Amino acid sequence: MTLGFALSFTGDILLIKTSDKQLFLSSLLAFLLAHLAYSWAFIDAGIKRYDLMITAVVVMAAMIGCYVWLFRHLKGLMKTAVPAYLAAIGLMLITAMVTRHPMQQLIVTGAVLFALSDLFVARQRFVSPGFNNRLIGLPLYYAGQLFLLSALLSA
User: Fold this and answer.
1) Membrane-spanning regions, if any (predicted)?
2) What are phi and psi for residue 154, nearest 5 degrees?
């Protein structure tokens, strides 16, 4: 989980100058890797296999819905990068929801908040830029990170 925090912090730094396309792509990669690092940590704690299939179907349906929402706004490399990113978010959500980690409730809350914050980043970047995206997205993101940190520190 520590690697996930470090990669998230890296993504935060890279997102400071949001108008720079190359920095945005680099931040996207950092956050994608953060989602994968968190997923690895959740899997490492053990998973509830009996919940895995239904959880995966529901979460991936939601990720496909997000992609459908975003698709007409995506151009070039983003038509490939965004579905890869959504897959990483989906994996993080699935593994959070089926982990056997003793702080699973904190993990699920943190993962869901982190994923929701990404919707506001996508809305800002691709659909409808505006202050409200940051007003809602940033507190969701930082609250999500705090829940994940609480799970790490409580374990």
Assistant:
1) 23-43, 50-70, 82-99, 106-123, 135-153
2) -85, -20
In tens, the pLDDT along 74-88 reads 999 999 999 999 999
| 106 contacts 45 by C-beta, under 8 angstroms | no
What does residue 129 show for φ and ψ, rounded to 5 degrees? Answer: -60, 145
Amino acid at 80: T
Query: Residue 47: beta bridge partners?
Result: 99
* DSSP code string of the chain: -HHHHHHHHHHHHHTSSTT-HHHHHHHHHHHHHHHHHHHHHHHHT-B-HHHHHHHHHHHHHHHHHHHHHHHTT--TTHHHHHHHHHHHHHHHHHHHHHB--TTHHHHHHHHHHHHHHHHHHHIIIII---HHHHHHHHHHHHHHHHHHHHHHHH-
Q: What is the mean pLDDT of residues 31-40?
A: 97
Map out the domains of the chain as residue ranges: 47-154
